[in-house]
Design brief:
Number of strands: 12
Structural class: alpha/beta
CATH architecture of the largest domain: 2-Layer Sandwich
Strand content: 15-25%
CATH class of the largest domain: Alpha Beta
CATH superfamily of the largest domain: Dihydrodipicolinate Reductase, domain 2
Distance between the termini: 11 Å
Low-confidence stretches: none
Strand order of the largest sheet: 3-2-1-4-5-6
Largest sheet: 6 strands, mixed
Number of domains: 2
Radius of gyration: 21 Å
Shape: globular
Order of helices and strands: EHEEHHEHHEHEHEHHHHEHHEEEEH
Mean pLDDT: 95
Length: 337
């Protein structure tokens, strides 16, 4: 029986706990938030926010020592935090025979050297590192690319929309909603990062394409990625609450831009493209009746053109944001182990 430790009990972490209740061969042994840690001895995680707040203070040294005490290879560490402090623990976890599953993109988007060392450490210690939800939430993008390469195919181009947040944003603007209210609503619904600027900056999409490029064997650093930001210059470094409050100043600009494209039968989509070892991320005007133009809600659409799938590229489409699909993707990674 595999033992699960979950770091981070926000939207995804809590949903994952509920989904794990239906898995008889998986046992949650502990959970933690940024301040407290709670252990379960009976195999059932009766998670309650108040109980965790009363639990002992968190100590990563003590948590890792406890996880090491279980049988070698039986523990899966789930990082649902998005915290650099937690992603920095992966090498130590690998060295102690602990598998890692995470929706967080932080570990895979540091320097190329750090990425290479991280994956080498995992292989060297015979532990598994799964991060399918780094791209496309629960959609099978990462493993599809890995399997194509493993089977001898060559990736020629990966393109499309990989941000459910951005699809939601532009599809709502097309309906007449304002930019500021849509950003606030996306945050409330859990479609965006806690600080929406992580999405609006294009950083989220850039990180996803950086990961896909590295999986393809391309050596590339973040600063080599061309990214178009949607954040007004004067709001880049203000506090999150001030940012959300002052975003109304951008409403008229986006309203005019959406209307102008509509007059020409086009809509805006935030896309990315990996081609010839280079990544470009930004706004693209596409025909309203095209595959990208028809996207609504939080839908992602990723097109993979390879040596085998050249004339008819492989297309993956589905919801690219939301706690249910993301948690399900994390669970699928756990089940692989």
């Amino acid at each position: 029986m595999k033992k699960i430790f979950i770091a981070g009990v926000g939207a995804v972490g809590c949903t994952l706990i509920q989904q794990l209740e239906k898995q008889p061969f998986l046992r949650i042994v502990g959970i933690c938030n940024s301040r407290h840690v709670q252990w379960f001895s009976n195999g059932k995680a009766n998670y309650a926010h108040d109980d965790l707040q009363k639990a002992p203070d968190k100590s990563w040294k003590q948590i890792i020592q406890k996880l090491i005490s279980f049988k070698q290879g039986s523990v899966i560490f789930v990082d649902a935090t998005g915290s650099p402090e937690v992603s920095d623990l992966y090498p130590e976890l690998f060295e102690n025979g602990i598998h890692v599953v995470t929706p967080s993109k932080l570990a895979n988007t540091q320097s190329q050297e750090t990425f290479d060392k991280l994956h080498e450490t995992s292989i060297k210690n015979n532990v598994e590192f799964h991060y399918e939800t780094n791209v496309g939430a629960g959609l099978p993008v990462v493993n599809t690319v890995k399997n194509l390469i493993a089977s001898g195919d060559k990736i020629l181009e990966i393109s499309g929309v990989v941000s459910g947040t951005m699809t939601y944003l532009f599809s709502e603007l097309e309906k007449g909603a304002t930019f500021s209210e849509t950003v606030n609503k996306a945050r409330t619904l859990g479609y965006s990062e806690p600080d929406p600027r992580d999405d609006l900056s294009g950083e989220d999409v850039a990180r996803k394409f950086l990961i896909l490029a590295r999986i393809c064997g391309i050596k590339i650093e973040r600063e080599e990625v061309s990214v178009e930001s949607l954040i007004p210059t004067h709001l880049k470094n203000v506090e999150p609450t001030q940012f959300l409050k002052e975003l109304k100043g951008s409403d008229s600009h986006w309203n005019e831009r959406i209307q102008k494209e509509a007059e020409n039968g086009r809509v805006l989509r935030y896309t990315g493209k990996l081609n010839d070892g280079k990544i470009n991320v930004g706004i693209e005007a596409v025909p309203k009746l095209s595959a990208l133009g028809s996207l609504t809600g939080t839908t992602n659409l990723i097109t993979i053109r390879t040596k085998r799938y050249n004339d008819q590229p492989l297309t993956i489409q589905g919801p690219g944001a939301g706690k249910e699909v993301t948690a399900a993707g994390v669970l699928a990674d756990i089940l692989k182990i």
